[in-house]
Amino acid sequence: MRTYAIQRVLLLVPTLLVLSIISFSLIRFIPGDAAWMMVDELGYADDIEALQERLGLNEPVPTQYVKWVTGFFRGDFGRSLWDGSPAVDELVRRLPVTLELAFFSLFLSAIVAIPIGVFSAVRQDTKGDYIVRSTVVLADAVPHFWLATLILVLPAVYIGWSPPVGWHSLSEDPVKHLLLLLLPAAIISVSSAASLVRITRTMMLEVLRQEYIRTAWSKGLSERSVMYRHALKNALIPVITVFGLRVPNALNGSVVMEAVFGIPGLGRWTIDAINFRDYPQLQVALMFTAITVLVANLIVDLAYGWLDPRVRYK
Amino acid sequence: MADEIVLRPSVAASVPFPLRWARGFWAFVVTMFRYKPLGFAGFVIVVVLMFTAIFADFIAPYEYNDTNRHDQFAPPSLKHPIGADHLGRDLFSRIVHGSRISVSIGFGAVAGAMCIAISLGLLTGYYGGWLDKIIQRFVDGWMTFPGIVIALAMVAIAGPGLWPLIIILGLLFGIRGSRVVRGQVLAVMARPHIEVARSVGVSDLRLMAVHVFPNVLPLVIILATIEIPLAITIEASLSFLGFGIPPPAPSWGRMLSAEARQHMLMAPWLGIAPGLALSLTIFGWNMFGDALRDLLDPAMRGSLGER
Which domains does chain B have, with CATH numbers? Predict the structure, then answer.
């Protein structure tokens, strides 16, 4: 297990390097840098070259890249071009919010989807199963943002109530904070829940056909014991993979939900950075969104290796 | 859901791998209708969508941008079957015209994506070596970025609009898809017929085109049906965020955006209709794709869908 874990972690190094290159170079192609915006649109300075020099935009691109990457090892992620504040300060405020939203939604989808998936498999081809399957199919087709729009608009029109929108930080008011996150997290969780129900059901059906389940039945174990101790435990292993695969999706969802519900997370930060050509900010935002996915994948792989010894010895 | 339907052995034998292309389109439709009712429903939705997109000018009673001061927020009526928006534009006509965007994004982006995926996948899978190693690391990094986030950054580069979006989504899915194609190429290359072809001195190019590519094609088609609804969703999400297709083009996502939301309080149909159109489209593609996947290659069920 240890060798496997070390191998997996070492594999991250080249990927991280590639991530930094993509995050860095992608945005250099964006036409018009921040200095242009400051001079042309806002009249911050008269001389664009002086401003570019002050912001460090005049240096050759490779030099900028090396500076940026070496800064990483010192915990210096660059400064915002607009207010000069270290990008890392803002990142520390924003990243937890997005992580919270994404993992809250995954948690919600898991606690809803796994029991439903088990139910649907155990009662295969009954009315209940059909209802679950059709709901899953429909849930898969509804985009997050439409669901959010409907939830914001319809109650407001017909019963004069609309869900709360705004922001309270965790330290400020934990209860309100969670209540505010609940709705966007629930909306994001819908599509994840759909795929989790599907994989749980498929895996349960597969496991229930296995011989050791027949043995368990013939030993006279209760349904509960067969289902939960023997079947579910084994069926859930592949479900973990799907869980990992849903992380990018949860992040996509949180970009949209942050915009809709005014949540100050990484997604909103990314959008702001694009609008203001704030390279250091965008680089850091892109980089850490990707790192979140990378770390989630790592955790899933390690969990998989831990749960299923066959994986480690490949 | 399609992954539960187990094909009867006789069916599995009669509808094998490349679907026996020669048996033709109608045989395929009939098979779909008999064994995959949901998939057939999806197929019908997709066909209706394409029909709507092609004949939008004849179906829509008005131009998508015809404003009419007197019909501001007009509720559904004979004149405006599903109402009108804040400028008095007929919502039905806008949604009908919006199908063009959806179809162009779906087919355009995915056609581009398939070209990239096939060429990159064939090259890296066929030749391997250090170039393949480098490209694969790049693809690893690329796939780590959540779709909407990387697409947002690319919209900032290419600017908004239909063509830039088609290119962006084509790149996004093309690079991701190359990984899948490469995997299949490696699998095909291990088959004996490749060695036979090599031993009689078939050139690399011919080997790729004649012996490898046809074996990758079914997978590419499956990949395409999975990516079309994804591309449509991402376009709608970007437009919703204000980064997709600029107004006055009737993008369904844009019609649901934050600016439009204030009008929905006056006219809730503005919030319902575009979303329904979008969901129905995605639903149709999903169902059609699932059924196609089961028919083309039952062994691959559920292994590609998540991304």
Answer: 63-278 (1.10.3720.10)
